[in-house]
Amino acid sequence: MHIPPLGLGTFRLQGQQVIESVSNGLAAGYRHIDTAQIYGNEADIGTAIAECGIARSELFVTTKIWTDNMAAGKLIGSLEESLQKLGLEQVDLTLLHWPSPGNAVPVAESMNALMEARERGLTRLIGISNFTVAQMREAAAAVGAASIATNQVEIHPFLQNRKLVDAAREMGIHLTAYMPLAYGKVMQDPVMLDIAARHGATPAQVALAWLLQQGHAVIPSSTKSANLQANLKALDLRLTENDIARIRTLDSNARIANPDFAPDWDA
């Protein structure tokens, strides 16, 4: 079961706001919904899913295991709690949200617990998030690269993460790009604005199309129906080699998600 290329992120969305975002997204045509235990919105997303009238088989739901729950004795129980909140018997994808801070829980232990969750039918697919090249290799050594459905990482025109992208491609591990619009920065950049104007598109559509053309999945978030619908049009936008070359020049290692427990990022 492949990951739909364009999904709906829900980071920082709570209560009625996330219910409306997911409901509007599903009505617009999104079928891939991304959440996490730490977001505190799984129950609200479950409400939106329950009320949407769309068959469960048409939806792709991702959640992520928080760092407190990565030990073998905690992971499966925490995923069962997430399923209860979501009102689902199974999620489509479960990720380790971050590498365990200070390697308190070894990567192999968490990956093997994820494999057990998959074998129990709690999740269709498993994967990782915010893993560096070395940690990605460690995860692959534990369960096999073929078992890792994706590594969800921050990628946008200002943080192109090329070393990790190249390593993932070499290993055959798919990537999902979060914060693909750099929290709105792409909408103000002169290069992105110019490329968008040439295509009769928006800078957001250009940023998403750039990622999609690399084979990545993308999970932008929005609370506005117009933006949700507009972002879907990125699926039909084809950038030229010149467009891609110009976007390449924007890389400035401008990382947004960098908490104090983050790993030592690849340069």
Q: Which H/E pattern describes the elements?
A: EHEHEHEHEHEHEHHEHH
CATH superfamily of one domain: NADP-dependent oxidoreductase domain
Q: Give the helix tally.
A: 10
For the CA atoms, what is the radius of gyration?
18 Å
Give the CA-based shape. Answer: globular
Helix percent reads 40-55%
Describe what this molecule looks like in 3D.
By secondary structure, the chain is α/β, with parallel strands linked by helices. It has a domain at 8-183 and 215-222: TIM Barrel (Alpha-Beta Barrel). The chain is built from 10 helices and 8 strands. Strands 1-2-3-4-5-6-7-8 form an 8-stranded parallel beta sheet, with helices on one face. Helix 7 (190-199) packs across helix 8 (203-213). The mean pLDDT is 97.
Would you summarize the structure shown here?
This protein is an alpha/beta fold. 40% of the residues lie in helices and 14% in strands. Helix 3 links the parallel strand 3 (60-65) and strand 4.
Provide key terms for this protein.
267 residues; alpha/beta; TIM Barrel
Draw up the topology in text.
Layout lengths: L7 E2 L5 H14 L3 E3 L7 H10 L8 E6 L9 H12 L4 E6 L10 H13 L3 E7 L3 H11 L4 E7 L7 H10 L3 E4 L11 H10 L3 H11 L3 E2 L6 H8 L8 H8 L19
Helix pairs in contact: 1-2, 1-9, 2-3, 4-5, 7-8
